[in-house]
């Protein structure tokens, strides 16, 4: 991604005779391309982060093509800033695939563009031309786009994909959709192209978010895989060297074992490991010799609450382990205790550790910054109590979905957000960044405690991938925070004790029949379900439960907590039975292995 190509792709284009002519041209070429990518499904719902479904037999080809068209239009509506398209189904089985769109600053697609995406994907083939014409005319006439934006800049779309067998061809379908927005007769070398696609190949979802952000804002970093690895590793090594100079962090080199879920995270770790030197040893397992996400990875470990499986895996007391998901945007820590039992350190525990570390450094630097933590209903009740009562952190609860957490975290000077599933990061506002850099730059006399703390925070800001939850970045941040505290996994786990919990899925005829409120903690429809849940919770010691419809499939997710493992399991099964009975459940009731 050279600056030369950036300048070429964002060059001012010669204006067409009229915007109507451009609209007609785009409609003609896009529809011509769409005939080679015919629609194969009825209505497809836009989920929490995009579209996701079974991908064998070319079933997602047309979705990818149309998302390529949408990405090109989105880039053009933003003066030609680069946007990203990631082909991945994250933690889903290997036969699934999906697509996520990335904004110029690394954020996800704005909520107001989700209906546009859904409308484009669900337009039937025979009406696609009319739909595109209406869509383009609407975009031109609405707040999304002006005439100057429409004709001035070439759209630029960066396309990446994970390691699934279906991903390369689907990524090419995305690129075909981008190219379909060009007038007939133009080719890749033509300066009159209205949109270009750049294939980045195999990478993690967070790496694509990072590269898109850096492409549009070079101050954030170098837009390449090596730039990503060097930025994170460089910050981690400098923090480790500072810790060594002040005599902290315990004796000997630290190491962590990583279950890479046979996904793309293994490649990112392979590039990172040599740069960490003696400061952190990465021992990578499930690096591609097995089936993606099958009985391994962050989602399996979190939901099943058990060790991952894989060739030659052995779990020894004292070892620290982490599981990534398939596209490396989630991370779950765990360990084997002295009695050989599985112990999990999920997103709640990661949030607590990082929040406690950051608050300590902020206070040491003498900074008056508003620090908050954002969770979802899946956060364990004990984590919320610990954060609010022990750490004094403002805690906010939002609906499930990274887009909701990310948005709410921006309301704080320093916003820590994590879902219990291990997807999270830390956001630093411009005010926080300026305050930290101002103290860190104080060069009068010898650096005191405040200056040293601010300089440490300055490095931590480089260690964090603020664009999205990033398993690699969080791994390094957690390892730094643990080293600063002189903790292993057991000491970390002892900061508070989770209530036992259980998650189940209930298949239903139509997930839209279930609606919720209060950040998904209360069920509105079907009528009568919430009172049943309330009665079951009231009868369970320290009970808590909620249900919510999936964003991608016809299932209702059940979450339950209780004072003991038996009570949590019992409550989950009882709530699942109520959902199955009152929300038109299909198939057998869920069970616990």
Question: Number of helical runs?
Answer: 20
Distance between the termini: 48 Å
By secondary-structure content and strand pairing, the structural class works out as: alpha/beta
- Fraction of residues in H or I helices: 40-55%
Topology:
Blueprint: H1 3-9, H2 19-34, E1 51-54, H3 61-77, E2 82-87, E3 96-102, H4 114-122, H5 128-141, H6 147-152, E4 155-161, H7 167-179, E5 195-202, H8 205-216, H9 225-245, E6 254-259, H10 265-276, E7 280-285, H11 297-304, E8 321-324, E9 331-336, E10 342-345, H12 347-364, E11 371-375, H13 381-390, E12 394-397, H14 402-409, E13 414-418, E14 424-428, H15 430-440, H16 449-463, H17 471-485, H18 489-493, E15 501-507, E16 515-517, E17 522-525, H19 529-538, E18 544-549, E19 555-561, H20 565-582
Parallel strand pairs: 2-4, 4-5, 6-7, 6-8, 11-12, 11-13
Antiparallel strand pairs: 1-3, 2-3, 8-9, 9-10, 13-14, 15-19, 16-17, 18-19
Helix pairs in contact: 2-5, 3-4, 3-7, 9-10, 9-16, 9-17, 12-13, 12-16, 12-17, 15-16, 19-20
